[in-house]
Each structure stands twice: as structure tokens, then as C-alpha cells.
Amino acid sequence: MIEETPKIPQATSKRLPLYYRFLQNFANLGKKRVSSSELSEAMKIDAATIRRDFSHFGALGRKGYGYDVHYLVEFFRQILDQDEGTDVALIGVGSLGSAFLKYNFHKNHNTRIVVAFDPKAPAEGKMLSGIPVFHPDTISEKIVELGIDLVILTVPSRVAQDVTDKLIKAGIKGILNFTPVRLTAPDEVRVHTIDLSVELQTLIYFMKNDVKNSQL
Fold first, then answer.
1. Closest to 176 (Cα-Cα) out of 153, 207, 155
2. First to last CA, the chain
3. How far apart are alpha carbons 96 and 80 in whole angstroms?
4. What is the C-alpha to C-alpha distance for residues 13 and 209, in angstroms, rounded to an integer?
5. Predicted confidence band at 158 (pLDDT cuts at 50, 70, 90)?
6. pLDDT, tens digit, for every residue of 45-56?
7. Is pLDDT above 80 for 44?
8. Gyration radius (Cα) of the chain, Å
9. DSSP bridge partners of 34
10. Pick the residue with more confidence: 39 or 106?
11. Closest residue by Cα to residue 122 from 130, 131, 134, 137
12. Phi, psi of 123 (to 5 degrees)
């Protein structure tokens, strides 16, 4: 989990997992050091932004040398708590939820879905893609039993807030929300909403305006 402090901007915090992934790629290729320009080319992020992000954590590199790849991989692994596994619950096993179960973060062995909930599941539960799926009536019990702090929410919009209220009472600290509902939650519960339709509409808008601007 990313530790955010007032010193680290939210935009920077969101880029930390990307830095870690690309630095791992460089390490796997046997690269010993990397410059902000090389990172910029690989990640398609402005080099000045990379240097500014890194500056929040002190002197991570040396002028004229660049950045030590192995050191940065270890540094960001600790920042992101990659040595500590995170168990996740999936709420809602429809089309999107089923895709999450099949994927189950296979490229990130420190994050894994360990339990799911769906109204179609029997009271005793059933197995899907190797994950136990239970009826939502057991959410509070299972969340506490498994010590889960993070859930992925892929339920119908009409029940999203009711389910969220139940999760909050069960002690959930983070919700990755894939419903279009803007969920109400206390300050101590972090909610990240990913509205696929909005993202698609935004992409279409930029595509059309890029074309218009190129014709001016």
C-alpha cells in the first residue's frame, strides 16, 4: 500500500507503481543504471516530471550518472510494501467480476483475490477460478474472519451504496469502485472510482479534438 504524506502529491503517488514496474523491466534486462531520459522514453512521461517525482524522496540519483536500477527497485518495493502480501475481496461476480477472478493479478504475486461474493452463490459457497464465492449475506463475517482491508466493487449501481455501508461496518479501509455511483464513505475509508464509460467518453473526446486541432 502506498503511504501518502502531505509531502508527496497524489499524482506522484499514483505513478509510483508504474516506476516500480518499469524499473523491474530494466533490472530484468540486466541494466545497471538508467537516466531520467531513458525512463521518460520507456514510460512516455516527461523527464522533468520523473525528476520532480523522485526529488520528493531525496537524492535518489547522481548528476552525470543517473539512477542505480537495483537501488531504485528495492527502494520502491519498500515504499509500495511489495514484500507484504495484500488479500483482496471481490464483491459482485458478473461479467467484469468474473474477468477479475480469472486474472487475479497473476503478474503481481503480492496482491490476490482470496474470496468473492455474489447473490447467485449458495449459502455454503462454491469455487470459481479457484476462488471461494459466497452469498453476500456472509460478507461481514468473512471480511472479519479473513482480515481483509481492501475490496473490488463490481455490483449493480442500485445496491452499490448499501453494499458499501455493510463493508464499512465490517472494517474495510479501501474500495476500488467499478460502479458509476459516487460512494459515500467516511474519511478513513479510501475510495477509488473507475468509471469505464466516463473513461471511454473522455478518450473519444480527446481523439476527436486531436483530429480537429490537427486540421486547424
1. 153
2. 45
3. 26
4. 29
5. very high
6. 998 999 889 988
7. yes
8. 20
9. 67
10. 39
11. 134
12. -60, -35
Tell me: the pLDDT tens digits for 55-113? 888 878 777 678 999 999 888 888 887 656 789 999 999 999 999 998 887 655 678 89
Q: Please report how the helices 36-43 and 10-28 are oriented relative to each other, as an axis angle in degrees rounded to 10.
A: 100
Q: How many CB atoms lie within 10 A of CB 77?
A: 15
Which single residue is written with the C-alpha cell 442500485?
158
Asked whether the beta carbons of 112 and 104 are under 8 A apart, the reply is: yes
Task: For residue 137, give the DSSP letter.
Answer: G
CB 175 within 8 A of CB 167: yes
User: For 198-211, b where at least 16 C-beta lie within 10 A, e where not — what string?
Assistant: eeeeeeeeeeeeee
Gap between the Cα atoms of 107 and 20, Å rounded: 13
User: How many Å apart are CA 30 and CA 44, to the nearest integer?
Assistant: 21
Contact (CB, 8 A) for 80 and 57: no
DSSP 182-203: -----TTSEEEE--HHHHHHHH
For 31-56, b where at least 16 C-beta lie within 10 A, e where not — what string? eebbbbebbbeebebeeeebbebbee
- Residue-level pLDDT at 136: 93
For 122, counting Cβ atoms within 10 Å of its Cβ (0-12 exposed, 13-18 middle, 19+ buried), the class is: exposed
* Domains annotated on the chain, with CATH: 10-79 (1.10.10.10), 86-198 (3.40.50.720)
